[in-house]
Amino acid sequence: MIVRLQEGYLKTKFGTFLEILYYDGQKESVALVMGDVNNSENVLCRVHSSCLSAHVFNSIECDCREQMEMAQFLIEREGKGIVIWLEQEGRSNGHFALLSTTKLREQGMTSTEAYLKLGFQEDARNYRCAVEILQNLGITSIILLTNNPQKMDSLKSSGINITGTKRLVIDTSGNEELKKTYMDKLSRGHLINL
Fold first, then answer.
1. 193 burial class (0-12, 13-18, 19+ CB within 10 angstroms)?
2. Over the Cα atoms of the chain, what is R_g?
3. Pick the CATH number of 3-88+125-187 from 3.90.220.20, 3.20.20.70, 3.40.50.1260, 3.40.50.10990
4. What digits encode the pLDDT tens for the residues 28-58?
5. Based on the number of CB atoms within 10 Å of its own CB, is 39 exposed (0-12), middle (13-18) or buried (19 or more)?
6. Which residue of 2, 51, 70, 93 sits 20 to 30 Å from the alpha carbon of 125, by its own alpha carbon?
7. What is residue 58's DSSP assignment?
8. 30: phi then psi, degrees, rounded to nearest 5
9. What's the CA gap between 40 and 37, in Å, rounded?
10. Residue 25 pLDDT > 70
11. Strand, coil or helix: 151
12. How far is Cα 131 from Cα 129, in angstroms, rounded to an integer?
């Protein structure tokens, strides 16, 4: 069970969010909330896993930073919504696993192929904390901000009531590294454009 530890307002370039810190006994999770979402239906929601490479080091090999920005932009435009930040680096295999894939990706493997070759899971993410955060906030259903049908299926099987999805369209023009990543995502069924 998660515990709600602390909260405070966070001013961002996409408006002011209420930042709520949760803890499940092992990891911290954060809910960024805009507007009154208590006991609400059809709330815009981004469930976002940590990505050290993109969010801290500004990597151009993935679109994690851009997806977070797009989600915050859409929530600001709506005036209400939530971003749930989960500590699940490298599809929850960890940063060691992610860094270990570098040489294999340089040789032409996709991230997924590299994870599997090295003995890691294709995707080890777990969404139990997201379910509990939504329950804690009284959110009864969400419109999921994602390009990933597998994430939607995983969240639904975890108990989240998803009434719709909204794609996060990121421009890949001029970014060959991101286009390589998108080839992997396309092979896993993501709804994206090259």
1. exposed
2. 16
3. 3.40.50.10990
4. 999 999 999 998 999 999 999 888 877 788 8
5. exposed
6. 70
7. -
8. -130, 140
9. 5
10. yes
11. helix
12. 5
Q: What's the pLDDT score for residue 136?
A: 95
Q: Enumerate long-range contacts of 14-23, CB under 8 Å, 24 or more apart.
A: 14/69, 14/72, 14/73, 14/75, 14/76, 15/72, 15/76, 17/72, 17/83, 20/133, 20/137, 22/129, 22/132, 22/133, 22/136
For residue 13, pLDDT beyond 70: yes
3-class state of residue 90 by DSSP: coil
- DSSP letter for each residue of 97-135: HHHHTHHHHHTT--HHHHHHHTT--S-----HHHHHHHH
> What residues act catalytically?
123, 125
Numbered ranges of CATH 3.40.50.10990 in the chain: 3-88+125-187
The 3-state DSSP composition of the chain as helix, strand, coil percent (nearest 5) reads 35, 25, 40
pLDDT digits (tens, 9 = 90+) for 107-166: 877 777 877 888 887 776 788 899 999 999 999 999 999 988 888 888 888 888 999 999
Q: How many residues does the chain have?
A: 194
Question: Considering the chain, what percentage of its residues have pLDDT values greater than 90?
Answer: 45
